[in-house]
Amino acid sequence: MKAGDFPPPRRRGRILHILLILVLVSLVAILAVLISRQPINLVFTALVLLAVLAFFPIPFLFYRLFALARANYGLNRDQLTLKWGLRVEQIPVSDIEWVRPLTALSEALPLPLFRLPGSLLGNRRHTDLGPIEFLASDAKSLVLVATSQKIFAISPETPDRFIKDVQRAIEMGSLTPAVPRSVYPSFVVAQAWDSLAARYLWLAGFFANVGLLAWVSLMAPSLGQITLGFLPSGAARPPSPGLYLILLPIVSIVFYLVGWLAGLMIYRREDHRPMAYIVWSSGVVSSLLFLLAVMFIVTTPA
After folding, report:
1. Within 13 A of 42's CA, how many CA atoms are on the CB side?
2. Coil/strand/helix, residue 268
3. Residue 63 zone, left/alpha/beta (φ > 0; ψ -120 to 50; rest)
4. Contact 226, 246 (CB under 8 A)
5. Alpha carbon 276 to chain centroid distance?
6. DSSP-assigned states of every residue in 10-56
């Protein structure tokens, strides 16, 4: 860690996020097993919906865990840099109006609605201070950094030393005035969309999955029995109801979304962009393989 780095507390947030991910992944796995053994009825539909709902938070928890691991508040004589995942805010020291701990406020500070230890992110409005953006992990060590545009709520591990160093930097003045810069996760999406290769890969994966889902949804109710997979001996599994085929496009969509998010994280760094294209290409190939799997299943006698 450099002398001008002030990382946030990570331990509690890292443990909680990992535990939540493990619990949700285990729940999805259990529900998948129950779905595979459940006949087509209302219970089957409810289990599928529960599995989708249990899976939905997992990519967000992974991103917040990644963001926490990457989070840092870097300070030098010219600028303060706030990093939180794909969110980067570079603030010239000359633009900082004041910095103070949370305890200095006379009125309570509203915290983000969807918060966890290690992940206090979002925007709130304070009655007196106006808009506040949270890039913090611990509500107990919050420090407010005010600029002319907005206030940032951050949580350096050593708040007292951080405040003193910022005040010292303000008093000394900048040697080379910095340019303010804001980078949001959505900016990465827009930047990647401008690339024809990324755009075609995204659209190819999207239409492949939507087409597969639509095809299976129309075809599955009229199917009789289908064979899904093989036994350890190499023989085909006993026939299953045709509606079970809907699981394949669901799994394909999940794989595609996870790959899309992973590619965006990698695309953030210019020197890693070829790797992002490989990840997105893998998502398209995976979707096509699921399409071929469905074709093979429906053409194989049960």
Report:
1. 0
2. coil
3. alpha
4. no
5. 16
6. -HHHHHHHHHHHHHHHHHHHHHHHHHHHS-SSHHHHHHHHHHHHHHT
- Say how many C-beta atoms besides its own lie within 10 A of residue 275's C-beta: 14
CA angle 46/52/57 to nearest 5° reads: 135
As a whole number, the mean pLDDT across the chain is 85
d(CA 298, CA 302): 9
Q: Provide the phi-psi class of 9: left if phi over 0, else alpha when psi is between -120 and 50, else beta.
A: beta
The model's pTM is: 0.66
User: 210-215: long-range contacts (C-beta < 8 A, 24 or more apart)?
Assistant: 211/291, 212/248, 212/249, 212/252, 212/287, 212/290, 212/291, 212/294, 213/249, 213/250, 213/253, 215/294
d(CA 219, CA 21): 34
- Other CB atoms within 10 A of residue 101 CB: 14
The string of DSSP codes covering 161-174 is HHHHHHHHHHHH--
pLDDT beyond 80 at 302: no
Q: pLDDT-based confidence at 1, cuts 50/70/90?
A: very low
Which one, of 27, 18, 149, lies nearest residue 91 by Cα?
149
**pLDDT above 70 for 154:** yes
**Per-domain boundaries in the chain:** 1-183, 184-302
Written as six digits, the tokens of 221 are: 């109710």
8 A C-beta contact, residue 302 and residue 226: yes
Give me the phi and psi of 63, to 5 degrees please. -65, -45
Q: What is the mean pLDDT of residues 6-27?
A: 94
Res 186 pLDDT > 90: no
Cβ atoms 145, 170 nearer than 8 A = no
- The C-alpha atoms of residue 81 and residue 182 are separated, in whole angstroms, by 10
